[in-house]
Amino acid sequence: MKNLLFAALVAMLPFLALAQNSVTGKVTDNNLNALPGATIKIKGQRTAVVSDANGDYTLGNLANGNYYVSVSYVGYKTQDKSLVLTGNATLNFALTQQNFLADEVVVSATRASKNSATTFRNLDKAELAKNNLGQDLPYLLNQTPSIVVSSDAGAGVGYTGMRIRGSDATRINVTLNGIPLNDAESQGSFFINLPDLASSVDNIQIQRGVGTSTNGAGAFGGSLNIQTTTRRDSAYAELKNTYGSYNTWKNTVSVGSGLITNKFTFDGRLSRIKSDGYVDRASSNLKSFFVSGAYYGKKDILRANVFSGTEKTYQAWNGIDEETLKTDRTHNDFTYDNQTDNYQQDHYQLFYTRNITNQLVANAALHYTYGRGYYEEFKDDQSLAKYGIPAVVIGGVTQNTSDLVRRLWLDNDFYGVTYSLNYTPSNKLNFVLGGAYNEYKGKHFDEVVWAQFANYDGSGSIRHRYDDNDAFKTDFNIFGRANYQVDQFNFFADLQYRRVYYSYFGIDPNGTPAQQNATLNFFNPKAGITYNINEKSNVYASIAVGNKEPNRNDFTDSDINSRPKPENLKDIEAGYRTQFSNLSFGVNGFAIFYRDQLINTGKLNDVGGQTRQNVPDSYRAGIEFDGKWQILKQLSWAATATLSRNKIKNFEEYIYDEDPAAFTATVVNNYKNTTIAFSPSIIASSEINYNVLPNASIALLSKYVGKQYLDNTSADSRTLSSFFVNDIRLAYNTPLAGIKNVGLSLLINNVFSKLYESNGGTYPYLYGGNLDRFNYYYPQATRNFLLSLNVKF
Topology of 227-792 in CATH? Predict the structure, then answer.
C-alpha cells in the first residue's frame, strides 16, 4: 500500500509543475466601501481566502475551467458569480446589506469565531451530506481530528459512540441550536434517539478541549455545537434512498416551502433506517421526523422546531469475549427473542431573536424534551426474593428461583430556557452575555413482566414493579465573554458560573436506601490571545478551567461520605492557522491537566457493577494537525493527525474475591505513570478526492488508530490492537429532465476487509485465590457497502 501511494505521488509530480492561473478582485458594499474579512471561496472546494484591510483578495493555483466563486460577509447577502477561466482574471464583488437577521445568530453566543484562540473545526451541510448514507452522526465526523468512532452492531447503525482526544461521550458537550442534548444524569449523548439527524443539520462546529462557554454538561474532551435547518429561499423537495450490506435501508423525504412573502419558511423531514447489523441479531429499526417553521422580519426571527425519534434495537452491548472472537466475530450472547432496547424522544424548541439596535442582538429560547422507554431482558435462575416475589410451592417443592423477563424503564422530562445578548459597540469590541436554566425530572422504575414460577395467576404473565425511584436536577449557568481587537492582536476573556442541584434515590451514611441530594458550584474562567500575522495566518494561545459533576452512578453507588469529588481540569491550547488559495492547515498543541479525574478502578457496587473513583493527578498532552491541499483543480487531499501522551501518575486497582468464603478479601495493585484507557497515542485520517468529471468524483478515505488499553494498567494483554481502515466513495451528480439533481453515491467501507475492533472492555475477578481477567470486544464489519440514490426537485 505504501509503494502504491508513493508511485501515485510520483506520477502526479509533472502535473504539479503546470502553470496555474489566479483570480484577483475587491469586495465592497454597494457604496464601494471596502469589506475586510469577507470570505471568498470556490464552490465545491474547501479552500477559501479572506479579503484584506482594503477588501482585496487573490485566489491562486487555478487551472483553466469553469468556476463558481462565492463571497460571504456577516450582515450582507452572499453573492455568487460564474467564471470561465482561461488565464489570470479580475472579479470584483459589491455586496448588498441584508434586511433581515441570519439564523447563525442563534448559535453565535456559544461558538468560536474564525480568529478565536480556540481549537475547532466547522462542517457545513454539503460536507456532511457526502457520507450521509445511513450511518449514525459520529461516523460522519470520523475524518475530523482526534476522533475515534465505534459501533455495537459493527456497521455504524444503531448504538454508536465516539471519543474526542480519548474522552467518551459523557465528557463531550453536545448542543442542538444551543440547547443541551446530553442526558442530565448519565451525561452521555445518544444519537440513536434522533436517527438521521444529520439530514436536518445545516452546520456543526466541533470544539476540542474546554472550548467556549456553552450550556449543559461540562466539556472535558470537546463540544459538538449543532445547528439544524436554517433559511432556504427556494422551495425544494428531496428523496434519499439507500440500500446496503446487512439488509440496511434508509429512506428520507425532505421538503421546504422556500421564502413565502419574504417572511415565512417551512421545512420538514421524515426518515426510516433499518439494518440487521454485522453482529448476529444486532438489528435496528429507527424512525424520525423533523418539522420547522420560521418568521423573518427586518429585526426579528421567530423559529419553532419539533422533532422526534423512536428506536428499537436488539441488544449487542455485551460485546464478544476474547475466546469466542477467535472463531465467531459476529457472535451475540443474547438469544431471547425480545432482548431489545426501546425508546422515544420528542423535542420542542422555540427561538426568538431581536435586533434591538445595530449594536445589540438578543436571543432567547424555550425548550422541552420528553423521553420514555425501556430495555427488556431475559434473566435465568433469579432469586425471587430479590424481586419481591414470594416463593412458589409446586408439587411440594418450594421454588425460590425462577427464569424471568424484566423491563427497566426510564420516563423523563427536560425543559428550560437559554438566552444571550450580543453587544458590538465597534468592529474592534464585542461582548456576549449568556446563560441557561434547565430542569430535569427522571422516573426510574423496573418490573418483572414474565416469570416461569410466580405466585400469581399461574400464567407466568405478571406486571410486577419491584423498583421505583425518582430523580430531579436543576442546572443554572451564566457566562460573559469579551473580544477586543488591538492592531493585530485579539484578546478574549470568558467567565462562566454554573450551579447544579441533584436529588436522587441513593444510600444514606447508614447504608439505608433513601432520597439524597447534592449541590455543586463551579467557576470556569477562560482567556486567550490571537496574533494575526496577516489576513491569511494567525497564531493563538489560550488557557481554560473546566469543572464537571459526577454522573448518576457515581452518586447512587456511594453515600455522602464516600461520594466522588467533582472533576477539574486546566486546558492549555496553542496553535497556528493559515489559509492560502490552494492550501489551508492548522497545527495545535494541547496540554490538559486533570485533578480528581473519575476512572474505573475495579471496585464494584452492590450489584457487581464497576464504580469510578477520583484519581488525583492525570494529564493529556499532544499535537494535532488538520489541513487540506488543492493539488490540482480535480485533485485534493485532506489529512488530520494527532500525536498524544495520556497518563495517570498513580493508579490503584481493586480486585475483589468473588468466593463467598473469602469474605470480601481484596487485592490492591499499584501502578505508576500508566496510560489512560481508550487513549491512542496516534490518530490519523486522510481523504484523497479526485474529480473524474465535473460532476463525478472518487475518494479514498483512510483512518489509522493506534493501540488502546482496555483498562488503566497499561497491560499488553488487555488492549485494542491498532488498525488502519480504508473506505472508497464514488459520487455522480447531474440535472436530468427538469430535475435539479440526481445523485448516485456508493460507499464501500473497509474495502480491504481489515479484521479489527474499535471498542471493548475488561474486568478482573478473583475466586478462591485465583486471579483471572475477562476481556470483551466489539468487532467492526468487514467489507460492506451503502448505495444511495438522491433526487432533488
Answer: Maltoporin; Chain A (2.40.170)
